[in-house]
Amino acid sequence: GAVVSQHPSRVICKSGTSVKIECRSLDFQATTMFWYRQFPKKSLMLMATSNEGSKATYEQGVEKDKFLINHASLTLSTLTVTSAHPEDSSFYICSARDLASGADTGELFFGEGSRLTVL
Amino acid sequence: GQNIDQPTEMTATEGAIVQINCTYQTSGFNGLFWYQQHAGEAPTFLSYNVLDGLEEKGRFSSFLSRSKGYSYLLLKELQMKDSASYLCAAFDSNYQLIWGAGTKLIIKP
Question: Looking at beta carbons, which residues of chain A come within 8 Å of B62?
Answer without folding.
Answer: none
